[in-house]
């Protein structure tokens, strides 16, 4: 294609396509540009050069503010590290530009901004750009803002969005600014205002031809990224970021997820419906229980009291009882007649028996029966005495055997034992001696137990410590330490700081005697001495404590002689060690000698027995005391264990002595009781042989009488039988007469009860009191449940009446029990309803549902009825089939979309390569080409295989269990394509399935070099490569990749083309111009020389000391040259 260099850049010579270029940019009160400024732009390339902070980026940001959405940040090339919301308070924004913010300062009232304008007064700002095409058609876009002095947010300003189909001078908005940019004022200035950014940008995009198929936002976003100069390290990332938008697979995956979630939501509704039906099904039973309980309570309350004669309960009782009373009355009359007849019959039988008895007795006396009667009477008396004497003899024998171990067989032996018993009972000293022995044994046991307890307590206390100090001294020291605010460790005893060396253990007793009271002296830091004395003055202690304030931290370098007492001790390391070694060396440097004869050979000496010599003085004795030395107590614990063992033996012996003394007292008491019983006994009371002899004599008399007259025996037997018969009949007669009287009394009382019951019934009927069937049924049931004769066996009238009265006696109790049971049933059912309602609302919250068992029941019953009517809870199985079928189709669509989108990416490279094919790259003999290769990802391959397999599986029939497994398998697949899934991008973003690179080829298309990582190239080479790829991508995004030149030409490059020398910069600029773009480049002063040969219009941006910026043309073009050709 033949290219010509025109005012619009290098364009195809045969092109007649429309192209818009930016002719000029106007600013009013924008950043450092105070007042009105106009910058003319060349149709080819314009350079804005200046120092850092001079205002280059301010001009670039004006273009962003005019054309791009509010999400595009200002000054993106220079401030890539700025954080926060784009154009927020932490970044450059409309307010800071409108007021011309210079800097910030800290004051007493907070942070204060220093601005060029708008400090305490209103101000306004405006931006305008005029575009022109080849035919001279003009379009001006304007954005303006009226900023009140109190404005803090963008919402506080009055924005203007407007266009004009000709050139427009922003100074003409001065009058409209005076009216706060009211719509009529803006229209009067010659502008067409728009209410929204969308309407404004749509007008610009459609007129200027920005974006393919009307989608100008993508093209503008790419222009913004190009202007910001975002750094991309690889060709792959560059192409995907600039050319490829979000693939259709995102929407397809979202649709699959949405469809699955919608169907799953239906499934959840089914499951929820089933759960809700299950939760609410019991409420009807609970409601029935409440109604039944309430009905039972109503009946109980209507019954009234049995004591109220006019109540239904009393009326029912009288009616039922009247029937029973009449039956009892008839039964009593019958039984009374029978009892009277039986009494008359019994009286006749008694008279006949008495007449017969009189005849038998007359015959018996005539035959010698008086002597036989006497013998038999005496025989009976002898038998009675024998029984009594035998019992007394057994008691005597048992007492003598148990208490005394004795036995008596004769009267002499009994007399001897009685004499001994009297002597024992008169001996008072024996009991006193036994009691004293028991007292002595118990005292010994108590003393032994107390000693053992003391030893065990002493051992427990010693085991908790590491020293040998007595417990009372420990307690006294603890009390003083607590009062002084110190710990016991800060008040050590001297004995706790030293220990006798093992090889000198035989000297331990001697060292204890030699050190004496010094060993139990408490040491404390002399710095605490004054405060210690004040603190303890009011503390009472049972043991007197001696203490001494000593210096701490003294060096432990005192040399000790191993032949002296201090040299044979070990010392515990601590703050008092140095002082203690010195003190012992000066006061207790006793020479340890083996014999008393050696004592006089030393100034101070000590023998193993504890005798001390100190010059002419000395001391001896006191051995056997407890050891207090040592910071280990193993020896003391062993000694205590020995003492405890001896104390246990002593306690066991004392307990045995107590048991023996108790047994002696028991034996003495038993003997005394035996002696006391023995002195009350005479031989006649226990002489069994004498009584048996008397019985034998009377038996012989009876035998003699009966042997001489045999008929006497039969007469006597008959007389005895008649006596018994008369006695039995007399008793029977008495009972019969008593029964007859009782029956008569009962009949009389029953008759009265019948009359009373009938009267009560008559009164109730007169009063109109009736018993309804429900009450009758309830009371009959109460009678049946309370009767003890519910087995079905025949019951007499009297028993039936008694049972009825027994039930009535407990009727009040039964009524109370029934009332409580009914109330409990109602309360239980209400609680169950409340819990059911609360659980339901907790699981499925609904602000319109309450939990009151009465007020909310109808709502929940309606919900249950609706659920049962809908049958939703029963359709889950059929629904699952539909879900699997529909979701399987969705997965098939996703699989197809993944394959199709990869093909589309490769197809999109073709128009970009077509553009690059006509552009020389590096030189006229080479071109740049984009190449796409599939990436090999095991994860993606397995995922797509899973899609295919699942699609095939879902097409076959299955059981419910298998469908459930398929559903769970599909749910796992769906979860992987959710936006929040960790591998969503790897699976769904097909841009990751293709690796893009650029290669340098010759004119025949042969490979020359590979361009993959942009960072590997030099700054100039990378800029040229980016220019080619991004330029071609921009042509594609602008929507006219197939046209000879882009309809929209301006491209702003902020801080771009600054890493190359003049040759590579020229090649990059040439690439942009070769693609038909108009360049506006912002660069620092040091890059002016590299860019200057390749641009047609150059400005230097300057800023004065007041912070105001302006542009100064260095080399420009005439006004007519900047317009259309």
Automatic annotation (TrEMBL):
GO biological process, one term: SOS response
Record organism: Cellulomonas gilvus (strain ATCC 13127 / NRRL B-14078)
Entry-linked InterPro entries: P-loop_NTPase
Entry keyword Chloroplast: no
Alphabetically ordered keywords of this record: Coiled coil, DNA damage, DNA repair, SOS response
Annotated coiled-coil segments of the chain: 343-399, 637-671
Keyword Cytoplasm: no
Highest taxon, organism lineage: Bacteria
Identification of the protein by name: ATP-binding protein
